[in-house]
Amino acid sequence: MDSGTGRGSGRPARQADIAAAAGVSQTTVSLVLAGNRDGVRLSETTRQRVLKAAEKLGYVPDPVATRLASSRNHMLGVYTFASAFPTDVDGFYYPILVGVEEEAAALGQDLVLFTGTGGADARAHDRTAIRRTRVTDGCLFFGRHIPEEPIDWLLGSGFPLVYIGRRDELDGRIPFAGVDYVTASGAVVDRLIAQGHRSLRYLRENDDAPSSTDRETGVLDAVRRAGLPTAKVVVRREADDVGPDLVGGWRQAGVTALIVEETDTGSLAKALIAAIDAAGLSCPDDLSLAVLGRSPALPEASGFEVPRRELGRRAVRLLVDQITTAPGKRPTVQELLPCRPITGTTIGPVPG
To answer: pTM of the entire structure?
Structure first.
């Protein structure tokens, strides 16, 4: 037994132990550790004595008990519907996760990772798995697609959540921090048109995630502004269907500029870059290339930088704002962050 408190050496310290060590009542300890939210008059000497005793004993509050007492435990959930946690710093989601961690630490919040995508049962979209996030004060969600029913249930229960990435499901009721892909993609096409390009192809995945749809919208809006036809501009392909024959055929048809989206998988941009090389073509001498994002396969490509780190930070701030706002007064905040243009080396005048 600990001679100072009577505490068993193998047992975690409790508030009763702190009260014995500090020579105060357990009620006083509870008030001090809870921040004295009731406004009871306590001397600074007493408060400091309790805090020093708690620190000396290594007291760690029970998060479940804390949540029951205060409705908050300063824990934020992170739940992904995709394989988002990278093994290296080149991962698409790595900067987002760095931003999430940085801002959570700055705001005094802990993070809880929910392993929604793990296991053989592939339960990322399972209602029960998603509802587990309610053990936290609020949760960040991300991934290209979401299950609407459990997210709708969380929103209806008043649980604070923020999606990382623009979402238009559930009648626009999902709070999010996203990226303004429409404006950024349009600016890339404007640049190509300013260089004299009139025959373009935009290569995108078959997947209809909002981020892909926004890029296409930006591309087509810019084409229309230039008074050019849009009928053949957009081409949907999977990465396995992109090769030198496809690129060579475009070139023979008079196409002078290619645009490709860069998503979380990075596979389509990588396939197109490899196909251009296999076709014996170079950029921008033979044709111009723009990547809507930044591809690790060709870092010098022209396009734009997605503000992924700031995206993670902003999402955390929005979530904490929701948590600290009364449920009936929470606005559905939806923010889009601008992208930084990348000049690169792969856009030039029309050849010849």
So the answer is: 0.78
